[in-house]
Structure prediction request, 965 residues.
Amino acid sequence: MTTEMDAEAAVKELRATFSSGKTRALEWRVSQLKALLKITEHHEEEIVQALRSDLNKPEFEAFVHEISAVSAACKFALKELHRWTKPEKVKTSITTFPSKAEIVSEPLGVVLVISAWNYPFLLALDPVVGAIAAGNVVVLKPSEIAPATSSVLAKLLGEYMDTSAVKVIEGAVPETTALLEQKWDKIFYTGNGKVGRIVLAAAAKHLTPVVLELGGKCPAVVDTNIELKVAARRIISGKWGCNSGQTCVSPDYILTTKEYAPKLINALTCELEKFYGKDPLQSNDLSAIVNSNHFDRLARLIDDEKVSDKIVYGGQRDKSNLKIAPTIMLDVPADSLIMSDEIFGPLLPILTVNKIEDSISEINAKARPLAAYVFTNDKKLKEEFIKNVSAGGMLVNDTTLHLTVSGLPFGGVGESGMGSYHGKFSFDAFSHKKAVLQRSFAGDLSARYPPYTSKKLKLLKALLKGDIIGIFRALFGW
Amino acid sequence: MEDPIHELDLESDLEELRKTFKSGKTKEESWRKSQLKALLSFLEEQEDAIFNALMQDLGKHPVEAYRDEIGPLIKTVNHALQNLKKWMSSKKIPLPVVAFPATAALVPEPLGVVLVLSSWNVPFGISLEALIGAIAAGNAVILKPSEVSPSSSSVLADVMQTYLDSEAIKVIQGGPSVGEKLLQLKWDKIFFTGSKRVGRIVMAAAANNLTPVALELGGKCPAIVDSLSSSWDKKMAAKRIISAKFGTCAAQACIAIDYILVQKNFAPTLVELLKAEILSTLGEDIKETNFMARIVNKNHFSRLRNLLREPGVEESIVHGGKLDEDNLLIEPTLLVDPPLKAGIMVEEIFGPLLPIITLEKIEDSIDFTNANPRALAIYVFTNDKKLMKRLTSETSSGSIVYNDAIIQYIAETLPFGGVGECGFGRYHGKFSFDMFSHEKTVAYRGYLVDFWFRYPPWNEQKMWLFKSAYRFNYLGVVLIMLGLKKS
Prediction:
């Protein structure tokens, strides 16, 4: 258990470590990244067990979505680190001639990573990889709602990492509050908007920059004239195949035309049965709901009298095992509970529109989501969608996969968050890009200095406009 | 004096801007270009009005005003006009072969309706650098200039406004209470330049709406002066130091040199050089020669006077120290080794008082600088390459400049911004465009290739396929798929 004093002591120790300069050395960063990699390679069983315990996460998801993703992040950072840490040479213009300029990446210092419960291993370590690669010291506070994973993280990082620079502090609200009162050089938070505001307000006291990875209602627009079976599989994979819909980028709801809806529902239910069988509550390939709080929250969404007659598939639940079957609803009213907040569960409302183009204004009437999806072969719809829908990221003809590519930044906009990470963007998120300008004493422009004269003014005007002839004329007094 | 009717209009002003943004007008390249061109016209046609306003607000000489405000802004607008198409275009991202998405791009989009809170010392420069970035990125903007520079604020609200599309860009005048009211509204980004104290207020207000902010705050920018041998180098260094302190709004600038660090044995030489340079560039009587800006108002004048009155400080003055309250003028003042605990060495000075701190060896400047909160800039005057390397890698600041000062402000290829207590977020050049943009990731997939092992029900075989794929073991993948390799 951490109190105010423990948080303060931890930060003090970390600051001293950072000031020593140890973490700036490339060798140190490489050693720590290799240590993280070892954890993913030698403790797979333990991690998979913890994820089963916290979320009944299928081993497949545990491996593909969490362990291998962390391992890939470490490997990518190890491969690219020398490139990322090289100063970026920058061109200079006539206004500062003669000069040399470059941009140098430096660590921010002491950073705090607050992680979430749904991908408790990935969302804890993915940012930590970036923080370490950039040369910072880190405190990681894993989510207490996934306690088994939190324990495993504390144990394994405690064993493998340099604990004078990388600390795991477990705990719930009081511990997190104590940590947020300290002065950090950056805070990285993954979670919901309510706590996001609290984090931002705490950061304001110390003028600490933050990255907030929040959520939103990610829409998936489904057009006609597509490979329906493939689309259905991809929607299912992104929804129920990702932690039973408890994923910030899962398709939250679907928009399709009135005529197409029955076909879509048919395809979805057909594939769902192939994946999870006739009694999905028995399938071992579906994650459970994380705890009874969230289970009750989701049950309320199903029991909402506004939607009870809109259920076209599923609806079964098993409270003792915290399982809810894949559930599809058709044409729920806009003011129903399920359409007000992010669902974060295995319930999929399908809203219908008259023309598919109308879905764009439907989406724009809501807060900007973390991701938006469109399934279409229509070039015009694709272009309209990309041009007019604002979201953290978009994927055409699939769901969620854009996260797996390390060359793409992952982050939100508006209510879905600020800042981004993954790959080099993680390194950048935890770096300060320092401008370095080198001038010599040789070239000097006397027009810069007083005493000020009108001739000097003429020269400055020409110089700042880049007007070569003007410069000559001013120099020669014309 | 604030206009009560105007205060009521803030919500409807914001409503109007939201409506305009929603209509898509500000996203059009043609609209953005037209507004940037309008700003260019404003800067060229209203030069005299701008000179007059700056003379009234700060006693800023027209050449200084052109060098530091109008000139750089014209450069910035032209740079934006030239590069706008490139900045607005999507950037293709190369993807690894095994990546599931087929192609991907980063598409920049405007954030929406943004708020720019500007400051009084470079009233046109700071307001317009941000405005140019916001417009280039396609946003609707409200600009609130500082009431502490009222003439400049008027020129912006009454003259510049007429050049711009008021349905999308508004200049709103007012003091702290107008600022407070603006902060209660919901913005898509807030850009603030000013003090740490107000920076905290801005960020706390933004937190309620999850509004991202960029803060350009202050700090104490040190100038580390090595023992130079060549007389040319010495003269150049002195010239640049004087210009970067007294010649830049009388040191009322976030990137002005705040204090100097010099080795004990070089200090007397440096002091003499600086004295000589002050006399030759600024003249004996600054009121007569008029080359130095004045202190902005009585508040700041008193603040600076109090810094000089602290115990131990007045005795450390080696040059200047004369105060003219009626004209709000303070002579260029040099001090050697004032007490390190005195206000003049703890707070940002923001005025023409230049403390010179002596050290045993010049390398001690590294520890000295690191013991203090990070600043917007560190300036170093030296020919010693080893020292340069050490300073670049062992200190941290917004930027670091060798053998000159202030000039990084006009280098549009370098990001301008702080780190730690001097703020976060960066702008100038393309960085301004990026500051007011959201880079949306867009990825595309086809239907043709689909990995059947992506879907449940799960089994060992599918697990092994994934493990191989992730380890980029293509051969393994193919073999397993053909059933030729046992998992």
